[in-house]
Amino acid sequence: MKKLLLCLSCLVAFSFAKEKVEFVSPEKLPVVKEFMPAPAYPGSLGYSADSLYYLYGKSLRQTKGDSAILFAQNKLKAMLRFYGDVIGLSLNEKDFPETAVLIRSVLKQSKPVTKAAKEKFARHRPYQDFKEPTLVPEEESPTNFTSYPSAHSTQAWLVSLVFVLLDPAHQNEILKLGYDIGQSRVIAGFHYQSDVDAARAIASAIFARLCAEPEFLNKVQKAKAEIEKKRNSR
Question: What InterPro entries does the record point to (predicted)?
Answer without folding.
Answer: Acid_Pase_classA_bac (IPR001011), PAP2/HPO (IPR000326), PAP2/HPO_sf (IPR036938)
